[in-house]
Amino acid sequence: MRNVLISGASVAGPALAWFLRRDGVRVTLVERAPDLRDSGYAVDFRGAALDVLADIGILDEVRAHETGMRGVTMLAPDGSITGELPASAFGGDLEVPKRALTRILHQAVDAEFLFDDTITALEQHDDRVTVAFERAPARDFDLVVGADGVHSAVRRLAFPAIDPIEHLGMSGAGFTTGNLFGLDRRGLLQPDAGRAVFAFSAGDPDRMTVSLSFGTATPELDRAGRAAQEAAVRAAFAGHPWPEVPRLLDAMAAAPDFYFASTCQVRLDSWSTGRVVLLGDAGYCAAPTSGMGTSQALIGASTLARCLAEADGDHTAAFERYEKELRPYVTDNQQLGRQAVAAFGGDAADSPESA
Prior knowledge:
Layout: E1 3-7, H1 12-22, E2 26-31, E3 42-45, H2 49-56, H3 59-63, E4 71-75, E5 81-85, H4 88-91, E6 94-97, H5 98-108, E7 112-115, E8 119-124, E9 129-133, E10 139-141, E11 143-146, H6 153-158, E12 165-178, E13 186-192, E14 195-201, E15 207-214, H7 226-236, H8 245-254, E16 259-266, E17 272-273, E18 276-278, H9 281-284, H10 293-310, H11 315-344
Pfam families: FAD_binding_3 (PF01494)
Protein name: 2-polyprenyl-6-methoxyphenol hydroxylase-like FAD-dependent oxidoreductase
Domain FAD-binding: 3-156, 266-331
């Protein structure tokens, strides 16, 4: 194994690239975005994910960007205070802005990056994979890794007959706006009958991140235009009793970084086929409600790289070992994601059989 292509330059892809480069592998990363992504909200790390950051040599630098969240105030539907949650309930062992993590990982990786491009075709051979790109000329690689998220282009090409996305009965929008509530490294959570408003400010005292979630699956809107997505959010929050909600809906309309998604998981019987393997959300998204997405991406990258290094060129054995080691961890995380949606009031079951 001398030449590997990774699709996706968010977290899982660059982390894997660092480990492969350490082992002497030539790596190319292709990313649909025109440049390094400077968006995203706070991400957190739990347990062994901190060890992966330490292995890469960036733990101290990542810690320097810790949000320092102090806690979350619970509100009743009318806005009155009902309780308090510790910062650890949302932030894990360490929480940083997503843009900081992305930049740090990118700077740590010595690899070729192809921005503003994507994979359009995969042709597998016994000894290589021929890859066609939207912009770059076609090239051969020893292995191809799909680390390109829930709606993975690599997965769609490598597993064309399978739709592994399972929607869990919950949707939501996210955006940033001015710090309307004067929050200082704190959050507000206002749940109301299958709806929830979560707002917090961390890192930038002038900005506030807002999440508006509701207990309805809307997979048809994931690829729709912003107007239809905003309309769905407004319909879900119509008549909300908290007087601040109309102001937040107005802020949503003006936000340049509006994001919408239905909460889902990716569930596959196998994470590889031939010389193509999936990593992170592309292969086994546990849903944002699990709180484990970033940790799972880092641990998956470390595990896959180690299995490849120990397999002495036998990618089939490496992929089998990677999946055998990681699947129990993924199964537990997906169960957490489903349980959180069920507690919120979505449709996800919480039985072991459904995880």
